[in-house]
């Protein structure tokens, strides 16, 4: 029968025919997906409903108990994906998941997915897609750009995910879903799964009630290359007079943090971290000397690293931010660079198919004890002083704020640092054993921390999350505080109100860096609306800050605590001033001559 233009599709379009083989009613595509997510630890799925994913959400929610997931409804798709990012971080680089609708949802989430890709986080982005019968029909659907082409969203995700699955039939749905999730785990990168909206509730024999558990073949080092790399590295370091170790952010994806500490214990070298690796190395280690960040390093750290005659960097990322505008005083011929699967010594040789964890573990047995560089550090080190005390009624200074934040930290805390001046102030915090620490340095998307805080707190029930967020960044993603309230989280948010985009001011100032001031505590009270537990305070002096912290850590310890800290617009860290000027200079380089 012919169908008129613009007519209602035939009834056969509603769903594909049920498979001939009998399958239990719980053996549906959606419930299989829920079981797989639960199996890999993504027990919370951050969602925004839309007409293409509603049946999928029904099926995800229907799977309960030990094999089920919870749906955490978010205010928008960008924040849902940021929350999946934070959830993955809290689980040590485990899986986080979000579920959104076709194109308008997916393309909203894609910015956060790109950030997860840059940070090597296995985020599963699930999209409710078009009806399976619409593929190849030449129909134009809503939530598209008005062309009979459903691949726009897919093509956008291809560059920011390591695997893309478009599930529009039941026969290979099981394989596609399993392949996508296992690839995310193996590559530690995001994946994209699009599921046709008419498929999630249909039973199929391939979706057995108890699917075979995932088993991923472990990656192995090439033993000959491993032995050669260790021999060459040991010879290189054992002849050095004052070698040092520096940990980088890719230690997490390599699962090499423990091996790095074992190496540090064995060799006696001083231990530093790159800024984006803060939190990956225990700062209570006896030879920890702080953050190596070029001109804005922890005091006395850069002097030791840059004066060394050999340095081993484990998992570094040298970009314009981490190198302070490419101004690090390092020499390649002195460096051993250990990447997740490759070791390069000086200008060469290089050894491939060598896993970082295996290399560091083996190297620990081959190095001679050498504490010379650490002894030099002890000779020059001067303990940091305390900030000047505040006078009664004196406007609150940022250094006073962070003195009090430092006193709050314990092994049951986790710090989330938003892009901006909080990067630099939080780097100065001394993390107690067990204290978590996260920030997004490679991608640097302002607003990331609000959604990430939601996700981190949802995963890390044993920690109280402390988020340091600037007013400009908060305005990008503020509404997710309402989701924190809805889920009973007891996060402490310090909203640092200095009237604009401070980090941008230091890179390149202009009137566009000044933002409209909000009544931030009033906004959070509006989110609260009498539902859930909430405490807000607006502080302008140290006395007011002390009173707010007394409440947040005492009678309001089970509440979400939102403390707006009003500081002067010029109260920025000296590290940001230095970093901003150098990054600005790097950005302002004239074109190379043709």
Automatic annotation (TrEMBL):
Cofactor names: Mg(2+); thiamine diphosphate; a metal cation
Gene3D superfamilies in alphabetical order: 3.40.50.970, TPP-binding domain
Domain Thiamine pyrophosphate enzyme N-terminal TPP-binding: 28-142
Amino acid composition bias (Low complexity), ranges on this chain: 7-24
BP GO terms, sorted: response to decreased oxygen levels; response to stress
EC assignment: 4.1.1.1
Residue ranges of the region described as Disordered: 1-28
Location of the Thiamine pyrophosphate enzyme central domain: 230-347
UniProt keyword annotations, A-Z: Decarboxylase, Lyase, Magnesium, Metal-binding, Thiamine pyrophosphate
Residues that hold Mg(2+) according to the record: 471, 498, 500
Thiamine pyrophosphate enzyme TPP-binding domain segment(s): 441-565
GO molecular function, one term: pyruvate decarboxylase activity
Subunit structure, interactors included: Homotetramer.
Similarity section: Belongs to the TPP enzyme family.
Record-given protein name: pyruvate decarboxylase
Source organism of this protein record: Urochloa decumbens
């Amino acid at each position: 029968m012919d169908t008129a233009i613009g007519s209602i599709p035939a009834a056969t379009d509603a769903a594909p025919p049920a498979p001939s083989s009998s399958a239990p009613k719980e053996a549906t595509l959606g419930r299989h997906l829920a079981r797989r997510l639960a199996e890999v630890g993504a027990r919370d799925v951050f969602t925004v409903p839309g007409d293409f994913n509603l049946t999928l959400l029904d099926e995800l929610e229907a799977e309960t108990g030990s094999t089920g997931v919870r749906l955490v409804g978010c205010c928008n798709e960008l924040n849902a994906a940021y929350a999946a990012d934070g959830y993955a971080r809290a689980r040590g680089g485990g899986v986080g998941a979000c579920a959104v609708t076709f194109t308008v949802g997916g393309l909203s989430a894609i910015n956060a997915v790109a950030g997860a890709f840059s940070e090597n986080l296995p985020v599963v982005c699930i999209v409710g897609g078009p009806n399976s019968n619409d593929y190849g029909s030449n129909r134009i659907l809503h939530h598209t750009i008005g062309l009979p082409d459903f691949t726009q969203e897919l093509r956008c995700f291809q560059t920011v995910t390591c695997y893309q699955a478009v599930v529009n039939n039941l026969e290979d749905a099981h394989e596609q879903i399993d392949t996508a999730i296992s690839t995310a785990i193996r590559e530690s990168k995001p994946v994209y799964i699009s599921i046709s909206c008419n498929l999630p509730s249909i039973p199929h024999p391939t979706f057995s009630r108890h699917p075979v558990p995932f088993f991923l073949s472990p990656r192995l080092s090439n033993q000959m290359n491993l032995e050669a790399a260790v021999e060459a590295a040991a010879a290189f370091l054992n002849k050095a007079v004052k070698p040092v170790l520096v940990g980088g952010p890719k230690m997490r994806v390599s699962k090499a943090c423990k091996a790095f500490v074992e190496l540090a214990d064995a060799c006696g070298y001083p231990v530093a971290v790159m800024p984006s690796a803060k939190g990956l190395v225990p700062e209570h280690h006896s030879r920890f000397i702080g953050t190596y960040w070029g001109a804005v390093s922890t005091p006395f750290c850069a002097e030791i690293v840059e004066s060394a005659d050999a340095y081993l960097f484990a998992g570094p990322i040298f970009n314009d931010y981490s190198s302070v505008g490419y101004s690090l005083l390092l020499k390649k011929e002195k460096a051993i660079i250990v990447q997740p699967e490759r070791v390069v010594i000086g200008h060469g040789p290089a050894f491939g198919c060598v896993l970082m964890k295996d290399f560091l573990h083996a190297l620990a047995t081959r190095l001679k004890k050498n504490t010379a560089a650490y002894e030099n550090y002890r000779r020059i080190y001067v303990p940091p002083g305390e900030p000047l005390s505040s006078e009664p009624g004196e406007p609150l200074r940022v250094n006073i704020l962070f003195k009090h934040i430092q006193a709050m930290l314990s092994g049951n805390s986790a710090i989330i640092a938003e892009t901006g001046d909080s990067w630099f102030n939080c780097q100065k915090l001394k993390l107690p054993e067990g204290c978590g620490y996260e920030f997004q340095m490679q991608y640097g998307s302002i607003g990331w921390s609000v959604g990430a805080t939601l996700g981190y707190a949802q995963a890390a029930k044993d920690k109280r999350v402390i988020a340091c967020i600037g007013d400009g960044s908060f305005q990008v993603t503020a509404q997710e505080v309402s989701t924190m309230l809805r889920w009973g989280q007891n996060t402490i948010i310090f909203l640092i109100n200095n009237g604009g985009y401070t980090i941008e001011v230091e890179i390149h100032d202009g009137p566009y860096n000044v933002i409209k001031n909000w009544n931030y505590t009033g906004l959070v009270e509006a989110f609260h609306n009498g539902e859930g537990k909430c405490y807000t305070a607006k502080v302008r002096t140290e006395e007011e800050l002390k009173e707010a912290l007394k409440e947040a850590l005492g009678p309001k310890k089970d509440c979400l605590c939102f403390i707006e800290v009003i500081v002067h617009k010029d109260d920025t860290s000296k590290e940001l001033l230095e970093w901003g000027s150098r990054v600005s200079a790097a950005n302002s380089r004239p074109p190379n001559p043709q």
